[in-house]
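Consider the tokenized backbone below.
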């Protein structure tokens, strides 16, 4: 394509919001064999583009429309594909080591040409290599990843429902909160993988290897692990000595909440060590948890309204869909925590009169480096001095800078 350099130049100007710029439109173009390493095609129109065999190392395809693109045998190592539309794209033989595909859409898709489906199939026997890639919250429902190299991938929160992962290498992969419902993991290797709070409902695991995998809080309904190897796998991190006192405290707190403080007792848990514990759906609204050690705890769907979590260690914690309205998270450590669809926005206090000032979640000086805030609600939260470097904020509802 003789004018490709001009298209790329004007696209760069468009990204920089210069008047002379124009968004790259390379739909259905054949760019096979081109070396585009390090170039930017962020948010470009690339539907049906043919990039087979291209050197695309370090390219920026963030937010690009690559629906039905042919990426067969491409070198995409270190490329940025966050929020890209890759539905129906052919990735046979592609190298995606260390690529960023956070919140990308890799679900099935079919191109139509003249009202007829356009086949986009790759050569048999080619495997997708994504070693060490970041696929946080990626949409991969029904994706064919049979035999794929996914070692050390970060698939936290990824949608892998009904995905074909037969014979895939997922050793040491991070699949915290991933949805693997009805996925086919036959003969897959997940040695040392982190499947904390993952859903494996109805997954097929015959011949799969879960040796030394972490399955704390995982939903294994209709998943027959007797057909798989689970030597050394971890299913719980809360020992019996801590289980009984914790349950008593939670029951007393529930009675305290239900009776408006007349019965039971408020949970006073400052500095408590609950690291790695499964607390899915727990109601600790109004609890005192300042300085608590909740590193990698599972708090999905938890109610933490008005809870005091100031200075708490929530590093790597699972807080998907948690209600944190009015909570105090001042100086909390939330590095790499998963707050997908969590409620941290301002709202009226329970029972408060209409027209009140409302509750504001305090994230003042909180550290959310590398945290996942995918579709989280944060409007009205106090965020002065918070840190969000490398955080995933796709779809998050935020106020403007204070």
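A designed sequence for it:
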């Amino acid at each position: 394509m003789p004018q490709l350099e001009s298209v790329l130049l004007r696209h760069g100007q468009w990204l920089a919001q210069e008047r002379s710029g124009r968004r790259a439109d390379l739909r259905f173009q054949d760019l096979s064999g081109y070396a585009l390493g390090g170039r930017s095609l962020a948010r470009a129109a690339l539907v049906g583009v043919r990039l087979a065999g291209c050197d695309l190392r370090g390219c920026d395809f963030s937010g690009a429309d690559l629906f039905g693109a042919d990426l067969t045998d491409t070198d995409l190592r270190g490329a940025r594909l966050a929020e890209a539309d890759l539905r129906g794209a052919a990735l046979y033989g592609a190298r995606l080591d260390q690529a960023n595909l956070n919140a990308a859409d890799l679900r099935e898709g079919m191109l139509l040409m003249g009202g007829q489906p356009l086949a986009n199939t790759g050569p048999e026997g080619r495997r997708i290599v994504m070693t060490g890639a970041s696929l946080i919250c990626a949409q991969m429902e029904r994706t064919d990843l049979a035999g794929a190299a996914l070692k050390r991938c970060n698939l936290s929160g990824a949608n892998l429902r009904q995905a074909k992962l037969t014979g895939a290498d997922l050793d040491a992969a991070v699949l915290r909160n991933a949805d693997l419902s009805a996925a086919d993991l036959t003969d897959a290797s997940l040695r040392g993988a982190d499947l904390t709070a993952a859903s494996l409902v109805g997954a097929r695991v015959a011949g799969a290897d879960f040796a030394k995998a972490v399955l704390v809080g995982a939903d294994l309904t209709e998943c027959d692990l007797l057909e798989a190897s689970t030597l050394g796998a971890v299913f719980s991190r809360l020992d019996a000595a801590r289980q009984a006192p914790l349950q008593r405290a939670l029951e007393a707190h529930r009675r305290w909440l239900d009776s408006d403080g007349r019965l039971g007792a408020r949970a006073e848990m400052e500095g408590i060590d609950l690291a790695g514990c499964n607390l899915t759906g727990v109601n600790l609204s109004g609890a005192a948890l300042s300085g608590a050690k909740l590193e990698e705890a599972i708090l999905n769907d938890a109610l933490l309204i008005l809870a005091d979590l100031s200075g708490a260690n929530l590093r790597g914690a699972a807080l998907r869909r948690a209600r944190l309205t009015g909570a105090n998270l001042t100086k909390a450590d939330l590095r790499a925590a998963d707050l997908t669809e969590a409620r941290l926005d301002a709202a009226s206090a329970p029972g408060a009169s209409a027209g009140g000032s409302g509750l504001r979640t305090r994230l003042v000086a909180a550290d959310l480096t590398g945290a996942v805030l995918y579709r989280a609600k944060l409007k009205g939260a106090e965020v002065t001095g918070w840190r969000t470097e490398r955080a995933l904020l796709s779809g998050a509802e935020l106020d403007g800078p204070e």
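Strands lie at 111-113, 116-118.
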